[in-house]
Design goal:
The chain has 458 residues and is α+β, with helices and mostly antiparallel strands. The protein is built from eight helices and 24 strands. It binds zinc ion (ZN). The site of zinc ion (ZN) has 8 residues, from loops.
């Protein structure tokens, strides 16, 4: 399906190529297709990459069925637009798992500047649901040719990827790919080397190894083409770390992506409890208004009230490792939570699925204690409801005495609590990255890509 006459495009050489939803749940993967397409583009000596390929993770709360796993955008300077658009569209059609449920979309934005409407679309795609129709409307208004297969749901991610990561925080990932003959076999990675480089490169790489669960985090387990991915703060560190890993397996190659992984980009938007919708992501500031309850499975539920006095239940799931903190919160604690809005069930209204807890202010908590005897200071005993108190030791009675409030120690502290690395989503910001956020992209004119950002074995 095509909508625009490609010949009518302006002759500006810059092309932003966005695509999404090329993969099914088993096998294939959008980043692998990006690796193949990049290889194709680099074979043409006239192609110049203006930025690293972008790997854009969109709102993770949207059910897998209706989103891609990671949208990609390539920003390039090319000569023969028409041929490149035809070839890439063909590569995506052939390389996508369309008969297994993938719904690829591809968009080609011509020109150096990304229109504001496209950037806005990319911003909203981080925390809300956007329709394919809206993506098509914006594409048409901005003369962006697009192609879609299956139900075309991938158009949302395609446009969002083009509009993303122009500035602001970002990270890098060097993803290594396997030779197809090795798909499905065990990935042999020396765990001790992963532990070594994890320590050596800290804080410049992240999510390599989960100390608490003794689990390696760089390699997937499925049959997909990804061998491993090293995430970090610069293209240099992710490439040198990947090279240092010295894997036994002969790989197909690797590529560096610039990404919003590890940035909490989906949680930048403040949610008002009066206006939340299912699958939205963001943060809520408010007060704990219902005491945390631990339910079967160790999950913790509590109520939160925002500044407009709207309330909602929030859920902290056991695997996040945040339940111990959550269970010690008290009514009146002032907190901020990063969260996604989870669909309600027949016996539970929509809940906020907590991704981090920032305790801003602890409430003072009092326990009521029996009053001391005014003669011997011993704690008196209650004579029954509204009947006063009597001292066991000297027999003194006081019918007007009341219980007295005693300030309790709180066993938790204010501060930020983030999930354990094992339960991190792609977008989750690791605790050490707070304060390391980058302000601008490296895609400003004149900045060069490192020499070793792409490698493909022949
Ligand atoms: Zn007494």
């Amino acid at each position: 399906m095509t909508t625009f006459d490609v010949d009518a495009m302006s002759h500006d050489e810059i092309l932003h190529i966005g695509f999404d939803d090329t993969d099914s749940t088993r096998g294939r993967c959008t980043t692998h297709l990006a690796f193949k397409i990049t290889g194709y583009l680099l074979n043409d000596s006239d192609t110049e990459f203006l930025d690293y390929p972008l790997l854009v993770r969109l709102n993770p709360n949207i059910p897998l069925k209706t989103r891609g796993n990671g949208a990609v955008c390539l920003r390039v300077k090319v000569r023969n637009h028409k041929k490149i658009i035809e070839d890439i569209t063909q590569l995506i059609e052939e390389g996508s798992a369309i008969d297994e449920g993938a719904n690829p979309g591809i968009m080609f934005l011509n020109g150096g500047l990304v229109p504001e409407a496209v950037k806005e679309f990319g911003r909203i795609a981080m925390f809300d649901i956007l329709s394919k129709q809206k993506a098509e409307k914006i594409a048409k208004e901005n003369c962006i040719p697009y192609f879609a297969f299956g139900n075309g749901q991938g158009l949302v991610g395609s446009l969002a990827a083009i509009g993303s990561l122009e500035d602001g925080d970002h990270t890098f990932e060097a993803i290594a790919y396997r030779k197809s003959k090795n798909y499905g076999t065990t990935r042999k990675i020396d765990v001790s080397r992963v532990i070594q480089y994890d320590k050596r490169t800290f804080p410049n790489t992240f999510n390599n190894y989960d100390q608490n669960h003794r689990r390696m985090l760089i390699a997937p387990h499925g049959p997909d083409p990804v061998f491993c991915g090293i995430r970090g703060e610069s293209p240099e560190v992710v490439v040198s770390t990947l090279e240092w890993l010295q894997t036994e397996e002969i790989l197909d190659g690797y590529m560096v992506f610039r990404s919003n992984q590890g940035t909490n980009m989906h949680l930048q938007n403040e949610l008002k409890l009066s206006a939340i919708r299912v699958y939205m992501a963001g943060y809520v500031r408010g007060k704990v208004m219902r005491k945390p309850q631990i339910i079967q499975g160790g999950h913790v539920f509590f109520g939160i009230e925002d500044s407009d006095s709207f309330t909602c239940m929030a859920a902290v799931y056991e695997p996040t490792g945040l339940t111990s903190i959550a269970s010690q919160m008290e009514i009146g604690d002032v907190i901020e939570i990063g969260c996604g809005v989870r669909k309600g069930t027949c016996n539970r209204p929509p809940t906020l699925n907590v991704e981090y807890i920032y305790i801003l202010k602890l409430a003072q908590v009092y326990a009521l204690s029996n009053p001391p005897c005014k003669y011997c200071t011993r704690k008196m005993k209650s004579e029954g409801k509204n009947k006063g108190f009597q001292c066991d030791r000297c027999g003194y009675k006081d019918s007007n005495a009341k219980k007295i409030p005693i300030l309790q120690n709180r066993d938790i502290m204010t501060g930020l609590y983030v999930p354990t690395p094992k339960s991190h989503r792609h977008l989750t910001k690791p605790v050490h990255r707070y304060g390391m956020e980058k302000r601008s992209s490296c895609s400003n004119p004149g900045s060069k890509l490192i020499a070793r950002w792409f490698f493909a074995s022949s």
